[in-house]
Amino acid sequence: MTLEVENLSVGYGDVPVVREVSLEVAVGEAVCLVGPNGAGKTTTLRGIMGLSRPTAGAVRWEGTDHAGRPAWSRAHAGIALVPEGRHVFGPLSVVENLEVAVRAVGGRRVGARIDAAMDRFPRLRERRAQPAGLLSGGEQQMLAIARALVQEPRLLVIDEMSLGLAPVVYEQVGEAVRGLVSDGLGVLMVEQNAALAMSLCSRGYLMSGGRILLGGTVEEMAHEDAVAHLYFGAV
Amino acid sequence: MDKLLQLVVAGLVTGSIYGLIATGYAVLYTATGFVNFALGAQAMLGGYLAYVYFPALPQWVRIVISLVVGAVVSVVSWNLLYKWAARRAMLAAVIMSFALAIVFEEIIRLSAGGLNVPAPSPFGRAVFQLGAVTISAHQLAVVVVSAVLFTGLVVMLGSKRGAAVRAMFADAETAEVLGIRTARLTTILFAVSGVFAAVAGILAAPLLTLSPYMGLNLALIGFVGAILGGLGRIGTAIAGSILLGLLEAFFAGYVSADFRTALVYAVFVLVLVIRPAGLLGRVAKVKV
């Protein structure tokens, strides 16, 4: 089972932002999409998730092209998103945030799934009845990940996880992600912080100017001049 | 004291009717950022369907027709008209709702005439004496029916199933990407607002008599009620409307009955100047 993005182009109005992006993520591997600010990573992800309508290309997942379908269809097909900036439902309690996610995909065993998520992030159990808007940034990030995991996805898409997260919390969350991948989950990570992303992933793609410049294993990418050039200036 | 109680009853009755319209505003605004000024005309349409058209049918059938058409008109006008305008500019959709209100008004005027039509209450002419307070069966019905609808809606929204709607209110895009079918929920909310508007029309008609032009006033006063409480929350929009009904009744009873409408709009202007988020509400986020 693989996510195959083929020649995806996404734009706002008539202005193309992302052109002919192709990438693949298989179940059981973590893949990162890195690149500097403004490279088109988030737009690519919005195109994949159906939040921005692609002008061309395909988003194939388990044999179905989701490119022209409404955004909700991905979640029902087993793709869950951890959005940039968390986007937890602030007025809803922690438990309600999780319940709503399970019910949205018609999931059974709501209680058991929420229990499992809270075993993974015990902080959430302590805060279960609190409105999500009152949690700290790190706790909200945990909730956003837990909210995706209770949907029991086969592919997890994470947008800019490191943004605004303390290194300690990031390490903790990263550990959870590693565990999930070894359990057989596919992960697509969009990250501005390439070093952090590459420490979690086995393969990666480098984006700049709305196109994919190169892709490969993280070891290969670490030796690419282009990566160093984009991040650290001329070498 | 007797006069006070009598005015409280009058205020609760009109406030409940405003609340039914205000609920529609609040529900649609929180879900989509859209303000539907056609709700008043939809209420008027509901009144005509229940009391003027189909005189041969039994009353309860005409009420059912009124409620069903109310839901359908609301859903169709969103999915066929407002939604497409709103994608470009929300203001265009809002102005379009005014235009649609005028279309409804003219359709009714041409088909049923422009004169006021009296509407007999489906709840009969009985009058109850509770101590010093006189309350008609119709007034009682207005308060009870509205209270049941308000409570039902609030309970539904607060329930586990209602959490999906609250999630959509909080962040529609994230709700959608999590698999919540927000377009479908929005359609349901439009149906609810249409039914509430039709009920407002059915309940208001015996008190006001029916006229094609009653819609604009209902639309604006309901909007003032919603603004008074805060447009972004359903409970406070209802509370604001009831407060407005009470204010209006006290003003009419103790100051001047002739200037009661002027009072409503004076309240509107004052609220917008002093607390645009509503007396009871927080600042509502505008979401498109």
TrEMBL record, chain A:
**Per its UniProt record, what InterPro entries does this chain match?**
AAA+_ATPase, ABC_transporter-like_ATP-bd, ABC_transporter-like_CS, BCAA_Transport_ATP-bd_LivF, P-loop_NTPase
Domain ABC transporter intervals: 3-234
Single GO MF descriptor: branched-chain amino acid transmembrane transporter activity
Give the signal peptide, or none.
none
Q: Does the keyword Ribonucleoprotein apply?
A: no
* Keywords, alphabetical: Amino-acid transport, ATP-binding, Nucleotide-binding, Transport
Q: Name one GO biological process term.
A: L-amino acid transport
What protein family does this chain belong to? Belongs to the ABC transporter superfamily.
The protein's name in its UniProt record = ABC transporter related protein
